[in-house]
Design a protein that fits this description.
Layout (H helix, E strand, L loop, with lengths): L2 H7 L3 H12 L14 E3 L4 E4 L5 E3 L13 H13 L6 H8 L4 H13 L12 E10 L2 E3 L9 E10 L2 E9 L5 H11 L5 E4 L14 E4 L8 H4 L1 H18 L8 H13 L6 H12 L7 H5 L6
Parallel strand pairs: 4-8, 8-9
Antiparallel strand pairs: 1-2, 2-3, 4-5, 4-6, 6-7
């Protein structure tokens, strides 16, 4: 879709509702209580089963749950987020939607970011570089384990020769094996070839069903050359945080920003903005809702 096509396609609330209906019930309505396949519409966003009269909200259990704003506003926000090449800022969204509060715009952005992680997404596979970096303040980079006042982040990226594939990033407690191994098992398909440095936190990789290749640093090989793909990803992340968010990201919100970065990076070759819009809306219909307090106190990361 072009922007003009987007405006025509979602001109009314009814059009937006019909679109969400098609995403929630792709094969037609099914009552969650009795399994009946027929319903009638009672009022905005509510559908009643013709057999047991159970009412189902089309937005219950989604990021739109309990919203008081028009769906058109949400659709516009998601379209705008997916069409921003270098990332979305709360101030930008505030201006686009005409919101009075910066905090409201930031809350909307964080809700949308939760939908950037598709439930049961396919794990990385093949050859995968894994390392950790430390992010904090106005600077981000791989600066040594135990860096003070920085948040540790585990990073994994597929590659085929010099060609980068998909990436994964996650805030972790520390650089120990107790943090790094679960990150790997959650994000990388068993049997894959994992390349790391010689850090002891990676010592149990083979015991968890992976092939493990260790690249050790030497005078002839720099740290960047040892794991070039991970270092490139972290360098791009640093540039993105500094350019779009001025580098100032609170630790409790960091995972949400990492999710947005990974969503954009993994779809960097997509020329169809409309498909990104569709995928994000599709995810939004299956991701659990979050409250303003969840966002305010960083519970999204717990």
């Amino acid at each position: 879709m072009t922007f003009d096509e987007f405006i025509k396609r979602f001109l009314t609330e009814e059009q937006c509702e019909e679109y969400l209906y098609s995403l929630r019930w792709k094969d037609g309505f099914v009552c969650p209580k009795c399994g009946n396949e027929k319903c009638w519409k009672t009022k905005r966003l509510l559908y009643a089963c013709t057999k047991c009269s159970h009412q189902t909200s089309i937005i219950a259990g989604t990021i739109f749950q309990d919203t008081r704003k028009p769906l058109r506003n949400w659709f516009t926000a998601i379209w705008w987020v997916t069409t921003q090449k270098y990332g979305a800022s709360a101030e930008g969204l505030k201006q686009v939607l005409g919101l009075k509060s910066y905090e409201t715009a930031r809350a909307w952005l964080h809700k949308i970011r939760t939908a950037m992680v598709r439930p049961e997404r396919e794990k990385l596979s093949g050859e995968v570089e894994v390392d950790e970096c430390y992010i904090g303040g106005y600077f981000a980079g791989i600066t040594g384990r135990g860096s003070e006042n920085k948040t540790p982040v585990a990073v994994a990226v597929e590659f085929d020769g010099k060609k980068l594939g998909r990436a994964r990033m996650s805030v972790i407690k520390d650089a120990s094996g107790e943090s790094l191994i679960p990150f790997i098992t959650q994000n990388v398909k068993e049997g894959s070839k994992i390349i790391t440095d010689g850090w002891s936190g990676f010592s149990n990789i083979e015991a968890n069903g992976y092939e493990h290749i260790i690249h050790k640093q030497s005078d002839a090989v720099s740290e960047d050359e040892m794991l070039p793909h991970v270092h490139l990803i972290v360098s791009l992340l640093k540039r993105w945080l500094l350019g779009t968010h001025q580098g100032a990201v609170e630790p409790k919100y960091l995972q949400a920003y990492l999710d947005e970065y990974v969503f954009r990076f993994n779809r960097r070759t997509s020329a169809k903005r409309g498909m990104l819009f569709y995928r994000l809306l599709e995810n939004a219909m299956v991701v659990s809702p979050s409250t303003l307090d969840d966002i305010k106190f960083g519970r999204l990361l717990e």
